[in-house]
Amino acid sequence: MASLQAEIWGAPEVAAPATLLKAMASAGGIVLLASARGGPVGFAYGFTGRTATGIAYHRSHAAGVLASCRDSGVGRALKLAQRRRALAQGLELMVWTFDPGQSRNAHFNLKRLGAVARRFHRDYYGTRTDPLNQGRPSDRLVVEWYLDADRARTISRLRQRPLLLVPTPPSLRGSSESLDLRPSYRILRRGLEDAFRQGLAAVDFSQTDAGYWFTSLPKGFSDPVE
To answer: Is the pLDDT assigned to residue 69 strictly greater than 90?
Structure first.
């Protein structure tokens, strides 16, 4: 799986070693490999985390799909397989992080999967120089994907009544990797942090409006994770 990760990320140094993944799977973590056309095309892996108040959740650390297989349903199939495994372990929450400047991932995580985001971290991983992250800060939104049907329905209803739009700067809406995008990230940072200071949650990403839609979550939801 290390060579698959290196091909997806464009840098072998960011690939998790097979020994780590084997230990993770042996200890009850979830390690998945997607195959098609006679070979591996995608992966996902994670482990069990626990909040300060003792709530257990699945912490999905990384997932990726070969560029030639994107928009083919492989990514969604991997996340749904993770969901089934997590539910089988008695977990009803999955958490991961993603780059808020990646509109494609924002749309997938918030709109297609129905997750929410309530936490934002500046430079979560420090300075990174791999091809996917060069010229960008390692800012991350923390995604919370509620796996039980009741909370999923609640979030679906909330997406119909958004309160605030935080737009993504135009330079982040393209796919150019040659630009220094850090000034645009600083603009996005301010918008996201202001929304979170108001106690709002990102519940949707609109490609039409080119931004994050925020609203309030009801009191029945636990405190934000991570």
So the answer is: no
Q: What does the alpha-carbon distance between residue 158 and residue 31 come to, in Å, rounded to a whole number?
A: 32
Tokens 């089934």 sit on residue: 84
Write the Ramachandran bin of 135: left for phi over 0, alpha for psi from -120 to 50, otherwise beta.
left
- N- to C-terminal Cα separation, the chain: 27
Please tell me the distance from the alpha carbon of residue 36 to that of residue 160, in angstroms, as a whole number: 36
Q: pTM score, two decimals? A: 0.92
CATH tag, 26-215: 3.40.630.30
Closest CA to 86 of 31, 129, 159: 31
* Residue that is written with structure tokens 């996340």 in the block: 79
SS3 helix, strand, coil % of the chain, rounded to 5?
35, 30, 40
